[in-house]
Amino acid sequence: MGMAEDLTALRAAVEADQEDVARAGDTVRELKARLATEGASAAGKAAIDEAIEQLKRCKIRLEESMKQYTLKSGGAKGDSANREAFNEAVNNALRRRLFYIPAFEIYGGVAGLYDYGPPGCAVKTNVLRFWRQHFVLEENMLEVDCPSVTPRVVLQASGHVEKFTDLMVKDVVKHTCYRADHLLKDHIEKLIEKDPLMDLKRKDELKTILVRVDELTEKELGSQIKAFGIKAPETGNDLSDPYAFNLMLDKPSATRYVTVYMAISPRAGLLRVREFTLAEIEHFVHPDNKSHPKFANVADLKFQLYPRAEQLGPKETVIISLGDAVKTGTINNETLGYFIGRTYLFLTELGIDKAKLRFRQHLQHEMAHYATDCWDAEIECTYGWVECVGIADRSAYDLTSHADASKKDLSVYEPFDTPREVEVLSVVPNKKEIGKAFKKEGKLVESYLESLKEEEAMDLKLKLDAAGRAVIKLCTNNQQFELVSSMVRIAKEKKIQKGRNIVPAVIEPSFGIGRIIYCMYEHSFGVRKDDEQRTFFKFLPLVAPIKCTVFPLVQDKKLETVAMNIAAGLTATSLSNKVDVTGNTIGKRYARTDELGVPFAITVDFQSLQDNTVTLRERDSCNQVRISVNDVVGVVKRLCENSLSWVEVLGQYPSVERAAV
């Protein structure tokens, strides 16, 4: 069978599978409509479940037939070999241009530790600067600067010591540690990828394990690792049984943007490292009213959401507006939705591809211990979908826990619009009688009584009313004291209140800066169509490490003087720039700065000495215009500020035919 016949057969298979999906979808809708009109029944629900399973199988067959047709017809290839080649090309360019290099490289390096070179430092600085502009300044936030090291008692109070654990496995020979769930996920994803014609039942089984992997116990996870024969990635050695590893004992709690240290084996280059930077926001909100005054600004944004129901069902993202997502309860509240929208804008304005960005809702079993609702901004790169931002509604958990542990009031006063009559607890120690009975310990007893919660106070009242006496135990030193009824008055009283004290809830967006930057590198990487050896980064001016380069056409003192004057003008307007006076050809110098992601280049040639003009080149298109020396700095500044487009520049200034790019 020839190429044309192959494509005809594959296309027919795709069309047949599309018809099967349409029919299966119609069946599901018909059964649901019948159930709604005739009423729920066990048989009706079973029929719907079977129809949904049939729809899933049809979709999987369609996905595979479309993949085969795309590959045969010369379309985009998404196999692992291509991803690995792309990954290697990106990282070769990053290392070659010193965006990053292994730390302590002359001593052999240390896995998971990297040095950011000059362009990498500049990109990171620009990303953090924009983060502060986008959130701190535009949202009128207040910054704090806290220690990176946190006392254990604080982490105990917040629940991190007890509950922030992952299941790890260890290379039995090298003693290197790995996240057990990550190894299992990676292995299953590779199995599915390598066998596109895998039996559908087997593929469904594997995908079910992927969805449920976070639910597995130590024993179940260990059984799966043994069943799949998974070995240590670097050595191929056997792995230990899974064991709980506390993530917080060897790293500090994060505030603002701080450095965090990890003690497990890092893999996946810049994505999983021992040390990384977090940028965090703690946004306090009324616990009973989580509306947001600026939610309307983002309500109409539409992008990929991956709600809990979709992960457990069709396993497909949905395109829905934030307004509808909040209205239907998919997103818990307006404030959470607002920060999801602001995060979407932040990432896409950095240059993250919208088609490779989704917001995934945590499943119930993977929700952090404090979270009411939580969404992750996940970005697709050659390592798969990578969690880069977590946006959690932490409720009032943290403040309540720390208030209880520290015995400090962390509430805020909320005034009422009009005074209200409320019933309040009154606990009044009889200080004279307590002092007489307990001497110097009397102050401890008084403090204990005054700190009682309502439930504890009423329980003590019941005991005193019933027996006339009750024993209390101080939690600070385990001392016991016997009280009699006359030592304390406990009652509920009606009072007129003008306000009340409440503990705010917290919405916390947490940004993994390094992961965002790496994904941005991949999304910005390109290859010249006419020369596959010429790679470049399509950084937006916002994040580009250098905004503009200035080239004298050849080594000539007069040309260099003009170039230096232009560079001084760029510097005076706070535009980072680089003057290249080497003797390389202009084409080579363009190529070198393209690989650094520099968006604009100014070239001073001999015509510049005659008419005081220079050429201005745009990186992505390689198009050039002729422009006055007096105007060029202002034009570049407006281009970098996004107040002027390159299309507008092409319309205002004469184009220059490209002799060498």
UniProtKB/TrEMBL annotation:
GO molecular function, one term: ATP binding
Domain Aminoacyl-transfer RNA synthetases class-II family profile: 112-541
Name of one Pfam family that matches: HGTP_anticodon
UniProt-listed Enzyme Commission number(s): 6.1.1.14
InterPro entries for the chain: aa-tRNA-synth_II (IPR006195), aa-tRNA-synth_II/BPL/LPL (IPR045864), Anticodon-bd (IPR004154), Anticodon-bd_dom_sf (IPR036621), Gly-tRNA_synthase/POLG2 (IPR027031), tRNA-synt_gly (IPR002315)
Any single Gene Ontology cellular-component annotation: mitochondrion
Coiled-coil portions: none
Entry keyword set: Aminoacyl-tRNA synthetase, ATP-binding, Cytoplasm, Ligase, Nucleotide-binding, Protein biosynthesis
Gene3D superfamilies: 3.30.720.200, Anticodon-binding domain (3.40.50.800), Bira Bifunctional Protein, Domain 2 (3.30.930.10)
Localization terms from the record: Cytoplasm
One GO BP annotation of this record: mitochondrial glycyl-tRNA aminoacylation
Location, primary (coarse class): cytoplasm
Name of this protein: glycine--tRNA ligase
Organism: Chara braunii (Braun's stonewort)
